[in-house]
Amino acid sequence: MNLRIHAARVIARRKTLETVLNPGFYIAQTAGLLLGYILITGFTGAIDSSGFSFELNPVYDFVGRAMVGAFGRTFVDKLFSEGPFLLALYISFLPSFFYLSINSVFRFSFEKKVGAIELISYGPADGTSCFLASYVKDILLTLLTIAILFIYFAVAAFNNNIVLGSRFLYSVPLILFTSSALYAYGILAAVATDNAVSAISLYMGIVIFFLIILMGTFSIVSGYVSTLSGVFTRIAGWLSPLFYWNLSLTGVESGKAGFFITGIVILSVLTGIVLFASHLIVGVKGVRK
Amino acid sequence: MKGKAAGFILAFCVTLFAFADVPVRKEEFIYSILAFNGRDYSGTFAREEADTIYLIAGVDNFLTAKKTFVYFWPITGEWRTDTQGLDQEMSGTLEVYSDKEQPVKLTPEKYTYYNVRGVYELNWNVAKGKEADKVRSHYEDLVDEYWKAISEYYNKRAEYESRLDKITGEITERRKRGEDVTSLLEELKTMKPPARPQPPEEYTVPPVPVKSGFIINLPVGEYRIRFLTPDGFIMQGSEKKIVVFEKRREGGIGYEIIPGDKWTRPSESKTPHSVLYVDGTTDLYLRPFYQDEFNDLYYEKMRRNDSRGNPNLMKWVRMQQVPEARIEMSPMDGNITTVTEEPFYVEQVQGASLGYRIVPFDAEGKHEGREPSIRAFHIPIERERGVLKISLFDREGKQILSGKRQIRVIPGAGFKTGLFLLAFVPLLVMGVVLFFRRKRYSD
Question: What residues make up the domain containing A7?
Fold first, then answer.
């Protein structure tokens, strides 16, 4: 066990270094910050003497109308009740999240296919330590991403006299735990398939499925779509990290700290279960292609 | 040639009108619903295709079974009834089923509802059966008395004016003749016009004319209903689910925000502890109100059965004003100021700007004989101030925690260029990393 952890630590260090030497990571960070910049300046441009009104800014008008149409006015009012940072945090995080997760899924599947992991496993490392290393690398770089976003938003908040907001502050740890569970699903997709394309397709399918369930939960459509979404949520909602993310945020909104903590605990447990499932699959399938 | 063209255009227009999109009216069984929404009664209807009716728990709601024409109005995207074409109330019984208890059979009952004047705005009452007739006739008596008093007033007013004309005419005549008018002037001084009677003040919403319907007052839960004709047949399309819900939280504080330059465009701050961002160009006038929290979908559907809502979100709904409250303003410098509710008058700005200006109401001066336009808390906004925290205290001087808000003035031109350039710092770091890496390997 200690050997596996040690191997995972050494490989994680190596993989982290490889990623920070790759331009893709920086481009994803910049893309995220630019999205945040657009949302923050758009928000300040949509304020007049009576307060925030998304119709006043072209970017927000488009986004706001689309969201009101899909999720209702109450959703939009709550989203911007403390400022733009809650939306900006999630939107800005997406480029880095997809870069890190897809990169890990691709790399692991590719290395498995070309026999690199098999080669390593003749030494002190095994398949589990390889994917754990990948997971640790993702978590470390996610922490770095969140720190960068936090600093950027804090500067923007101070400069524009806007508050970061309590829901933003609660979302900072929550985004880490939610993405952690999603990274675990990425590993599961990588170990369960035979090539990189299949792994990425499966992973994207899982993420999109979870997103659709979440959006269905919040959408104001009625009738068939609503019923279908309700059925999917009942069947597969408990598998989705986004379900527990929503549970935690709902707890924050209604002033129930217990819900927030429960959500985080369940996300951690879910991560552990998915990683354990990946370990079992690696044990059964091995690390040959 | 011109004649032919005109004829063609005319024919085209006639064809357009002939094929205009006239909504198709369909005869349907509906439940006409008068639901208490926490603030007042709102009317809606559940057509045959609607599977669920939403009502608030523990209050009287009224259902009427009807046959009417139903049509979809595409301009507003809502279903409507054409009661002028057909409005037939159905007689029969309503069966209410729940999973736990035996079905309850309801028969139509007479009812009226009204709101009496009190310290708070909401003092709704419902009168049923004979009591409904009594309440309504009491109100009608009050109205009759009022109109009698008005009639007497006009008679007295006519007498007064006739006497006034007579005296003034006599004074003129006597003065022409050089006679003494002192006694007439004395009489003129003592004459007072009759006081105009006030309309009945007992009610803020008078009892509505007595109607007949099924009175539904249920605890929280899900129920099923169906309508039975006097022959005992189930009416087609009458089987519905009833979702009875309650508020999740109550007594929250919301604010109606009236900017000094746009008093016709007030906004609302409903989320407790939310932040109000303004550009600082004008003062604000606030009106605090109590609000309750309901499920978004349930509440919207209760008010209009064909509307849409979010089943997984809660929304705050404005209930009534906070009486005799006061607001404490705490700016950054720590100089706390207390503001009380004051009357204000909205004046139209003279000239081409066509705006409005809110000024303090001067009851004895230039606004004499008028009513104030608004009663609100005046919050002066200064661009330099940056942050202003407000707290609300009730009439007993107790702080209402959910009434806390921050008002923040957003600087017009911030550090936008700097913020934009800051977003490129990761690329700069990338350049540095790649440079040193290349240098290291080249060395």
Answer: 2-285
**pLDDT tens string B285-327:** 999 999 999 999 999 999 999 988 888 888 999 998 888 899 9
* A192-229: burial string, b at 16+ Cβ within 10 Å, e else: bbeebeebbebbbebbeebeebbebbbbbbbeeebeeb
Could you tell me the end-to-end alpha-carbon distance of chain B, in angstroms, rounded to an integer?
Answer: 90
Nearest CA-CA distance, residue A27 and chain B, Å: 7
Q: What is the pLDDT of residues B430-440, one digit of tens each?
A: 999 989 888 88
Is the CB of residue A169 less than 8 Å away from at least one CB of chain B? no
**Per-residue buried b or exposed e for B408-438, using 16+ beta carbons within 10 Å of the residue's own CB:** bbbeeebebeebeebbbbbeebbeebeeeee
**B320 in A contact zone (CB under 8 Å):** no
- What is the total count of domains within chain A? 1
B310 Rama sector, left if φ>0, alpha if ψ -120 to 50, beta otherwise: beta
> Do residue B418 and residue A159 have CB atoms under 8 angstroms apart?
yes
SS (H, E, C) B69-100: EEEEECCCCEEEEEEEEEEEECCCEEEEECCC
Alpha-carbon dihedral angle through residues B360, B361, B367, B368, given to the nearest 10 degrees = -140
* Complex ipTM: 0.87
Cβ separation A72–B296 shorter than 8 A: yes
